[in-house]
Amino acid sequence: MTMNENTPHLSLNQIQCRYGDNIVVHNLSLEIERGELICLLGYSGCGKTTVLRAIAGFEPLHNGSIILNNDLLSSKHQQIPAEQRNFGMVFQDYALFPHLNIEENVTFSMSGKSRAARHQKSDELLELVGLKGLGERHPHELSGGQQQRVALARALAQDPKLILMDEPFSNLDVELRERLANEVRDILKARGVTAIMVTHDQHEAFAIADRIAVMHNGTIQQWDSAYNLYHKPANRFVAEFIGQGALLKGTIQGDGLLQTELGELHGERGDLLSDGCQVEMLVRPDDISFTPQGRHEAIITRSNFLGAESLYTLQLPSGEEVLGLLPSHIQHTTGETIRFNIEMDNMIVFECNLDRSENLGIPHEH
Amino acid sequence: MTRSISPLQITTYLLALVVALPFLVILISWGDINSEIWEHLLDYLFLDLLTNTLWLILGVGGGVLVLGTTLAWLTTLCDFPGRSIFDWALMLPFAIPAYVLAFVMLDLFSYGGTFHQLIDTFFGGMITPPDIQSTGGVITVFVLVFYPYVYMLARTAFLSQGNSLLEAGQSLGLTPTQAFLRIALPMARPAIAAGVALALMETLADFGAVSIFNYDTFTLAIYTSWDDFRSLSTAAQLSSLLLLFALMALFGEQAMRGRSKYHQTTGRTPYRHQLKGWKGWSATTLVITVLFFSFITPVAQLLIWGIEVLDQELNSRYFEMLYHTLILGAGAALLAVLGAFALAMTRRQRSDWKIEWIGRLITLGYALPGSVLAVGIMILFANFGHAWNTISEWFGGSASSIMMQSVPALLFAYLVRFLTVAHGPVESSLERIKPSMEEAARSLGESNSGVMRRIYLPILTPGIFMALLMVMIDVMKELPATYLLRPYGWDTFAVRTYEMASEGMWEHAALPALSLVIVGLLPVIVLVRKSR
Questions:
Q1: pLDDT band at A3 (very low <50, low <70, confident <90, very high)
Q2: At which of A231, A262, A294 does a domain end?
Q3: Are B480 and B514 in a shared domain?
Q4: 3-class DSSP state of B272
Q5: Is the predicted pLDDT of residue B298 greater than 70, yes or no?
Q6: Are residues B118 and B255 in the same domain?
Q7: Are residues B485 and B500 in the same domain?
C-alpha cells in the first residue's frame, strides 16, 4: 500500500444517509489527517452518530463515498463489512461483554493469538488506561469510569487504523468526564491513533479534539479549531451554539465600520456587507474589559458565580444586554452601575433582515 | 437492506401454523354436529357442566384472590413469627400437581377416610364433618394448589412498590392497614388480577383432579365424548366452549400484566408492620395451616405410602415409566426451546406487525387446555392419516396410517402448549445482549458466525438451560394431553398416578406422584432463589 503523506487519512465525500425517506445526513464532506483527534459536535438528532456509524460500517450510504488511504470503504454500491475494517469502536453504553472478564474483553479481537501474547497485551493496555491488575474482574464489578477505560483498551487491542467513539463520556458524572477526556486524549496522542468522537458537549469536544465539526440538520456548519469556532463562528448557529455571548444591533457604515450603541467599531468582516445594512454583532464576554475609566456604562441585572469568575449580565441604556466576566473575588451586586470598554479583535456580524430560522444552518462560505 | 426471508423467519411462520392448526380444527368441527350425542348432553349433562364451571370460576377465583393476596400482604408488609421462612415456603405448593393433592385429600377427608375415622373414634358419630367430595371440596383443592400464582405476583408487586408511598400515606394520617387497603392494594391490583387469571386458566384446564373427584366439567365431558361415544367432533365442539372461557382468562391476564408495568416504582424494601401478640400468632397459624394442607400433608402422605410399597413398586415398570417421562420431557423441551429461540431472534432482528401477531398467537397455545389440544391434534392426525393413505394407495403402497395416538402427536401437543413457557427465559436472556454488544464484536473483527459463537451462545446458555428445565418439568406433570395422545403402553408418571388414583389405589399412585413432586421442586427452588 502506498502512503502519500499529502492525501488525507480518511475522507468522506458528499455522503448521504437515510432512514427510509428521511435524509439524516446531507452530502457531507470531511477530510481527516493521520493522527488527528476530531470531534463531531451537535445537538442530538443532528446526524453526528449516523456519520460515525457509517464510518464504522454499520450504516449504509445512500450516496457519496468513504475512503481510507485511497481504499474505498463505503459507497452506494459497496460496503466493506464492519468486521473487516479494523476500526476500534467505543460505545456510549460501553458494550462490554458481561460473560467475559476484563482481560477476555480486552483481548476479544486477538482470538488467533497465543495465550501469552494475549495476556501481555492485556497487561500493557490495562496499565495504559490505569486499570493494572483488574484483568480478572468482570464488567459488573467495575465503576462506569473503569468500564469506559476497558472499552477504550479493548478498542486499542486490535491496533486499529481508526478509533471511533460514540458519546463515550455521557454516562459519567461531570467531574469524571473532564478528567477522563484529558486522559483519553493523552493516551490516543501517545499512540498516534487517529480518532473521531461524537458528542453533544462542547467542553468535552474542546478538551479532546484538534479540530471540531459542528453539525446541524445533517450538515457541517463549521469545521475548525476550537479557537476559531469561538472567536470566528461561521454563522449564527455556531455563534449561538458555541460559548456564551450576546448579539448587539448595529448598522454598517462603509469601510468596515459598524455603528452600534457602543460607538463606531471597526472589524475585518464588516466590509463584506453593503452600506446601511442592518446587522447583529456578536459580543463575547471576553470582548468586554471593565475599568472605572471605561467609555460605556451599564447596569448589572444578573450575576452568576462560576467559581474563578463571575458572569454578569449588563443592561445598556437602550435596554440591550451584553455579558461580561470578572474575577470572582471582585464582587458586584445587581442594580449596580459599572463602566467598561469594548476590545474586539474580530468583529463577527450577521445580517438581521433575514428571518432567524432561515439564517440558521446555512454554512458560511470562507 | 435485503428483504429476503431468512430460515429463522420461515421457522417462525411454521410455528405460527403449528399453534394455529389445533384452534382451526376445533372451530371447523362445528360443521359436523352429531345431534344424538348433543341431545344426550343437553338433556343430562350440559347444565351441570355450565353451573359446575361457573362455581369453579367463582370459588377458585375468589379463594385464590383472598388467600394469595392475604399471604403476600403478611409476608411482605408485616412481620410475625416465622415470616422469613414462610416467605419462600409458601411457594412450595407450586410443586404439587392438582391431581396429586386431589387424591391425597380424597383419601384423608372423604367418608370412611382417615379424618372421618378419627372423628368417629373420638366423638362416636356426634359430629359429621362435611364430605370433601363436593363442590366445596374441589374448590378447596384448587385454591390450595393454585394460590401461589396470586401469592407470587402480589408479593413481587408489593415488594416493588417500595416504602415511600406507604410512608406518604401514613404521613397523611392513614394507619398501616388503611395504607395497605388504599395504596398498596390498588397499586398491586393488575398483578393480583393477572395471578387470578393464571389460576383460573389452570383450573379450567384441569382434568385429573375433577376426574378423581368425579366432578363434571368441560374437560371431563370432552374426554367422555371421545372415550365413550367415539365422537371427536362433539369433543371438539365442547372444547371450543371451554376454549372460550380459557381465552377470556388469558386476555384478562395479558391486559392486566401489561398495565402492571406502569405501576412499578423502585425503592427501598418496605418497612414491615410489626404484628404483635395474638395478631402475630394468628398470622403464623394461618400460614402453617395453609402449608399443612397444601404441602406438608400431601408430601407426608405420599412418603408414607411410597415407603410402604417401595419394595414391590420400584421395579422395571417404574424405570420404564421414568424413561418415558424423561424422553418425552426432554424431546418436548428441546423442540420448544428451538422454537422459542427462533421466535425471539426473529422478533429481535425484524419486528414488524406480522411478527408481533405471531408472537401473540403463540402465547395463545398456553391457554389451550391439554384435553382441548389433544382433541384438536387427534382430528388433525386423523385427517393427515386419511390423506396419507389415499396418496400411498395411488402409488400402490400399503396403507400405513399416521397414528392419532403417537409420540409425534404428543410432541406436537407439548410444543403448542409450552412454547410460551420456553419463550420467557429465552427472550429475557436475549435482552441481556444489547445491540451495541453485537456491533462491538463486529468492530473487533468477528464475523456473523463468530458473533453467534462467542457472544450469543455463552450469554444465552443459562436462559436456554432454564427454559429446557421449565418445559421439561411442565411436560412431565402434564396429564390430559399425555393421557389422550400417548401411544399404547406409554405410561408416564402423570398417567400412572392418575390411573391408579382414579381406581382408588392410592398406594400404587404414591411413588410416581412423589417422583413428580420431587422434580417439580426444582423450578420452585429456582423461583425461590430468584425472588430473594
A1: very low
A2: A231
A3: no
A4: coil
A5: yes
A6: yes
A7: no
From the list A60, A93, A108, which residue is nearest B444 (CB)?
A108
DSSP conformation letters of A187-221: HHHHHT--EEEEES-HHHHHHH-SEEEEEETTEEE
CA atoms of B123 and B73, how far apart (whole Å): 38
Domain shared by B61 and B152, yes or no: yes
| pLDDT above 60: residue A160 | yes
Under 8 Å CB pairs connecting chains A and B tally to 64
**Whether the Cβ atoms of residue A223 and residue A365 lie closer than 8 Å to each other:** no
Q: Which long-range contacts (CB under 8 A, 24 or more apart) does B521-524 make?
A: B521/B92, B521/B95, B522/B469, B522/B473, B523/B94, B523/B469, B523/B470, B523/B473, B524/B91, B524/B92, B524/B94, B524/B95
Tell me whether residue A218 is in a domain.
Answer: yes
B458: closest CA of chain A, how far (Å): 7
Comparison of pLDDT for A109 and B529, the residue scoring more: A109
Is residue A123 in a domain?
A: yes
* pLDDT for residue A362 is more than 60: no
Residue A347 pLDDT greater than 70, yes or no:
yes
CATH code for the domain in which residue B378 is found: 1.10.3720.10
Three-state SS across A32-97? ECCCCEEEEECCCCCCHHHHHHHHHCCCCCCEEEEEECCEEEEECCCECCHHHCCEEEECCCCCCC
In the structure grid, which three cell numbers stand for residue B144, read together? 390450595
Provide the domain count of chain B: 2
Q: Are A35 and A53 in contact (CB under 8 A)?
A: no
Q: Which residue is closest to B444 within chain A, CA to CA?
A: A109
* Same-domain check for residues B208 and B182: yes
Asked if B444 lies within 8 A of A154 by C-beta distance, the reply is yes
- Do B269 and B178 lie in one domain? The reply is yes
What is the rounded average pLDDT of the residues B430-442? 90
Share of residues in chain B with pLDDT > 70 (%): 94
Q: Mark whether A193 and A265 lie in a shared domain.
A: no
Domain, as residue range, for A173:
10-231
Q: What is the mean pLDDT of residues A30-39?
A: 93
Q: Which amino acid is at B426?
A: V
Give the nearest partner residue to B445 out of A56, A60, A83, using CB atoms.
A83
Average pLDDT over residues B240-254: 84
Let me know if residue B36 belongs to a domain. Answer: no
Q: What is the pLDDT of residue B402?
A: 60
A60 and chain B: CB distance < 8 Å anywhere?
Answer: yes
Collect all residues of chain A within an 8 Å Cβ-Cβ radius of residue B459: 97-99
Residues A30 and A123 in one domain: yes
Shared-domain flag, residues B229 and B297: yes
Question: What DSSP string describes B343-380?
Answer: HHHHHHH---HHHHHHHHHHHHGGGS-HHHHHHHHHHH
Flag whether A364 is in a domain: no
The gap between the terminal CA atoms of chain A, to the nearest Å, is: 35
For residue B431, what is its C-alpha cell?
Answer: 435482552
Q: So what's the ipTM on this one?
A: 0.80
Same domain, B418 and B309: no
Cβ-defined contact of B436 to A82 (cutoff 8 Å): no
- Integer Cα distance of A267 and A252 in angstroms: 11
- Interface check A118 vs B, CB under 8 A: no
> Residue A4 falls within a domain, yes or no?
no
Same domain, A225 and A251: no
- Looking at residue B166, its pLDDT comes to 77
Cell digits for B325? 417421562
Q: Is residue B483 part of a domain?
A: yes
Here the CATH number for the domain that contains residue A171 is: 3.40.50.300
Helix, strand, coil percentages, rounded to 5, for chain A: 25, 35, 40
Q: Are A219 and A354 contained in the same domain?
A: no
Report yes or no on B38 lying in a domain.
no
- Cα angle A81-A83-A87, degrees, rounded to a multiple of 5: 105
Residue-averaged pLDDT of chain B: 86
Question: Looking at residues B149-169, what average pLDDT do you find?
Answer: 83
* Domain residue limits at B291: 46-313+492-532
